[in-house]
Write a structure and sequence with these properties.
Helices cover about 55% and strands about 5% of the residues. The chain is mainly α. It has a single domain (about 15-185), classed as Cobalamin adenosyltransferase-like (Hypothetical Protein Ta1238, Chain: A), CATH 1.20.1200. The strands form two sheets. It has a two-stranded antiparallel ribbon with strand order 1-2. The longest helix is centred in the C-terminal third of the chain and has 24 residues, at about 125-145. It starts with 15 loop residues before the first strand and ends in a 7-residue tail after the last strand.
Amino acid sequence: MVVLNKIYTRTGDKGQTALGNGARVEKYSARVAAYGTTDELNSFVGVARLEAAGETANALSRIQNDLFDLGADLCRPGMDKDAEAEYPPLRAVPEMVDRLEAEIDVMNKSLDTLRSFILPGGSALSAHLHVCRTVARRAERHAVELAASEDVNPVAIRYLNRLSDWFFVAARMANNGGKDDVLWVPGANR
């Protein structure tokens, strides 16, 4: 259980922050960018939940919890040192990716095949989910960049990749099952 009885610590006032293993790094480090963008995504998912109901709201709630776990994974370097850890660190697991894929498959069965790119928009929920999709892609890019120089759980990267797909399909579902998708018309304003 986490206990936070004091919100400010002043330990970051000089531009550094603590990672999950206690190491201090610059706030602009690749690792902080990866888990910080994951945190940003979680906030956008919270905004999308304001428009969601039923199973979509439940799925977004699960995703928010996953994203917090994922942030904990990304802020804890040294996967090879997990066995030495005082307590087992949270790590993204393949079952998280499997769940997203199963949910994508269920949603996608009721959608017509795309014959055009779609523009973000339509319903408010769809627009919010498209924002989530693009922020998930940015979080994935940061995680991939981090993985080029440091240890990163590969499942974390797979999760972010699949999550952006989930948001895309869910955005179509939020547009009346894709019937109200806003289609891109190449060169329409020339």
